[in-house]
Amino acid sequence: MKRILVTGAAGFIGSSLSHQLLARGDVIVGIDNLNDYYDPALKEARLARLQQHDNFRFQHLDICDRTGMEALFNGERFDAVMHLAAQAGVRYSLTNPRAYIDANVMGFTNVLEGARHAKSGHLVFASSSSVYGLNTRLPLSESDNVDHPVSLYAATKKANELMAHSYAHLYGLPCTGLRFFTVYGPWGRPDMALFLFTRAILADEPIDVFNHGKMRRDFTYVDDIVEGVMRVIDRPAQPDPDWSGVTPNPATSKAQYRVFNIGNNSPVELMSYIHALEACLGKKAKMNMLPMQPGDVAATNADVSRLESWVNFRPQTKVEDGIQRFVEWYRSYYQV
Questions:
Q1: 236-240, Cβ contacts within 8 angstroms, sequence gap of 24 or more
Q2: Which of 32, 103, 169, 272 could, after both became Cys, cross-link 107 (CB 3.0–4.6 A)?
Q3: What's the rounded Cα separation, in Å, for the pair 200 and 314?
Q4: C-alpha 235 chain-centroid distance
Q5: pTM (2 d.p.)
Q6: Contact in structure between 262 and 316 (CB atoms under 8 Å)
Q7: pLDDT at 203 over 90
Q8: Annotated active-site positions, please?
């Protein structure tokens, strides 16, 4: 049994992860600021499900609150920290960039400082496939250069990786970054494509299809993400004995630091994704075919060989199955 801090516990991945950690017997302290980036009622509903567990304790706390974060780490002992709280979304970063600096840089600093001083054990944090930016060599590998982000959101996630490495190097804090690839599933975020498409199709409204549908994404089902995260939490980052400063590998280090992709390793064309959703809904979509959006990329495909080697796991849920489960949840939750 571990005592684990989960930041962003009322979020999509955070709530799903917390459920599974509780199910295996861990004690979870969850924090979230419950902001209104999207409907807080959905966050409250996720949280209500978690609060049915005796081993779950929630604190309404913003990671940007330096004093509050210091008090949290001073008052608690954690075996591991799973940091998921962040300002998410590529498009929102084009209109509200300061929110990303506040949450993803300043907030992450508070998490790092808390974990360092409290000696909280393994720090696992959410990065993103967005860090690959202009890199078009597929499949995307953790050893690739990621110095050309195309959104501030991506830049802050790359910054998190660099910040974590410095703490691993300076203070011996084991840090593992996880680059999530287009996560979807029940209890998802309303600003994500599957959610937006489902709502619009059921309302007989058109959906916006960017890059005229010529996109490929490594859609990854949330339960696969959660399983991978749990296994990573249980295996703290270790120094790479083969790491060389002459030919430095960004995926590892001589410090206790690792970066892993978590993706389905099976990219799907956006139009195929939409057709699978249409089949589950029993209804055709009306489509607005639009050009590529600023900050977006045409294709993602995760090389997950490092993850598989490290924790003996690779995501494998088929898109058709994952979408069906989402639609069942959506119809039940919204009564449609």
A1: 236/121, 236/122, 236/174, 236/176, 237/122, 237/168, 237/174, 237/175, 237/176, 238/174
A2: 103
A3: 32
A4: 19
A5: 0.96
A6: no
A7: yes
A8: 153
- pLDDT tens sequence across 98-109: 999 999 999 999
Q: Can you name the residues that pair with 175 across neighbouring β-strands?
A: 123, 257
Number of residues that this document lists for the chain: 336
In whole numbers, what is the pLDDT of the chain averaged over residues? 96
Phi-psi region of 187 (alpha: psi -120 to 50; beta: other; left: phi over 0): left
- Rounded Cα distance, 167 and 256, in Å: 9
State the Cα–Cα distance between residues 323 and 282, nearest whole angstrom: 13
CA-to-CA separations, 331 to 36, 177, 186, 198, 199, in angstroms, rounded: 23, 34, 10, 10, 10
pLDDT at 89 > cutoff 90? no
Q: Which residues contact 152 (CB under 8 A, 6 or more apart)?
A: 93, 94, 97, 100, 101
- The two tokens of residue 48 are 């209500």
What gap in Å lies between CA 164 and CA 175, rounded to an integer? 6
pLDDT band with cut points at 50, 70 and 90 for residue 294: confident
* pLDDT, tens digit, 9 for 90 and up, residues 31-88: 999 999 999 999 999 999 999 999 999 999 999 999 999 999 999 999 999 999 999 9
**How many angstroms separate the CA atoms of 270 and 272, rounded?**
5
Provide the token pair at 19: 């459920």
